[in-house]
Fold:
Amino acid sequence: MKTLPATIIAILKNRLEKNGVKPLNGSLNILFGTHLAAFVFIILSVYAPQTADAQHHGYWQQEVEYVMDIDFDVETNRFDGHQNLTYHNHSPDTLNRVFYHLFFNAFQPNSMMDKRSRTIADPDNRVRDRIYHYDETEIGYQEINSLTQNGRDVDYTIKGTIMEVHLAKPIAPGESVEFEMDFHAQVPLQTRRSGRDNAEGIRLSMAQWFPKIAAYDDRGWHPNPYIGREFYAPFGTFDVTIHIDRDYVVAAGSILQNPEEVGYGYETDDMQVNRPDGEKLTWNFRSENVHDFMWAADPDYTHTTAQVPDGPLLRFFYQTDPVAENADDDQQEELLENWEELPEYTVRAFEYMNENYGEYPYEEYITIQGGDGGMEYTMGTLITGNRTLRSLVGVTVHELIHAWYEGVVATDETTDQWIDEGFTVYLSAFVMNELFDDGEEDPMLSRYGGYFNVVNAGIEEPMHIHADHYITNTAYGMASYTKGAIFLHQLGYIIGNDVLKRVLNRFYEEWQFKHPRGHDFLRLAERESGMVLDWYYEYWIETVKTIDYGIVAVEADNGQTELILERIGLMPMPLDVEVKFTDGSVKHYYIPMRIMWGEKENEFPDIERVVADDWPWVFPEYELTIDRPVDEIERIEIDPTQRMADTDRSNNVWRAEDS
Ligand SMILES: [Zn+2]
Structure:
């Protein structure tokens, strides 16, 4: 008898049960033998709707359904919560334990976040040693009062920000269980991303505020303690009810279900608002296909909206008086104007992204003044408001692009942080160039300096390191933001910018509401370009080897010219070489690498391009023949578009006048 792989069994069990068929325990393989035809049909129905590329080779992901009810006390900054979590185990594995994040526990003296901040060489200014000095009213915590699995009490162990739950009964592949929890929490003073009473006077910035089940994938559990870096969580639905003092305006990255009971600008023109009596108002939000729920609340929020044509409704929440504490009258007026202008820019940014990089799939997106800088959350962002117009638009644009890369395509921000940050930085450069009519031919080039600085300082670390484990914050920031952005721009150099755009679109299309990893992106780049690109990933992501090519000599050779190039850096690359002649004409020479097994199309069809012999990377030097005499050449340049991160460009150019 043929044995089916566990994943297929799990999927089949699920399918059968959904269709009302209950196979006997352990009988699937026997059934397979006797009901072959029926199973072939089911297997086909499981896989048929997917294209060959979308199968992702047995890809699966876990699924969550949260229902939460929160009773908030704005006097004590504490709240009681009830959480019902239905957890669907779509993995092929039997789970004996699960983990939850209790993020607020990070904001206590001697927590891992506190200790790390006091021992790292370059601490985040927003944290430093602040947590160490917090008193009882300033710390944060999440306490678990009770926890059951399908009605049975379970034991759990809490260490810092992680709770390990010892299950009453293992969760089999394909099984769903219900966890029921009562918890109590105190909101910390705003420290990092989340908290009460931020620097601009926003009362509550509620991110990472509820006990959240950790991610489980084919690499196992990811119970990452909250130290400083970002997040990774399963997709599902969130239904959250918040009871809070009636003068508080609540903003959330979700859809409000009861605007008629709330008002505060959520009501539509034809709606009669009837607030129920009582000290508190009840707000009910619901969202699907998301992996987080962020909210904020303040009694002074102004709420405005803007509609993206054929796109989401945008909501903006900011305080008007003052936008920032300590602002004088003139500053206050300017800050207010900036917030009034922000919606128009945000609409244009959404239009640009929708048109070029795939459509934003949710009905709404929210920009909230709150937090401590800018942080992306599902369907919205928390940003600080004390900014110039350009900075306010800049941070909003950065965070909204995260809706594509983090919100919808939910890469693991702890291990593939360079995808969500790098891709966002890359696209922000182009969106901002467009929004502000900067007219920069290549707005990405100015980003390269940050990379060179860290390389020259000798503190660079590889991009694939877990985000919390970098030696310095500087190295983390450069690797994820700058080098992540250069990863894409330089990939555009290797495969061509048009192909890169197709890859980004395909990535967004195929990995919506999923958790791809770096290699999944690279495979799409290989498919679209027809090139082998494993070397690029290995060198750029996994090492700190750098690129440096140079021109060694330009020599006359029987009426032609011999150009000798050398590879000085340890990382090999294909080369674009531009030759300008004294008669004003220009010719491009393209030298692919042999290990690419392919070549890019001519990106500049108006300029004649010669595809030269490929360069086997082990050869330190390469000879290129230019079919015109040396005295007709005015200038030669390696990589004229400068997308290649060559650490020493001084040896990239040869000029006749200097020779
Ligand atoms: Zn970011």
About this structure: Residues 376, 398, 402, 421, 424 surround zinc ion (CB under 6 Å). The CA atoms of residues 112 and 227 lie 6 Å apart. The chain is about 25% helix and 30% strand. The two ends are 78 Å apart (CA to CA).
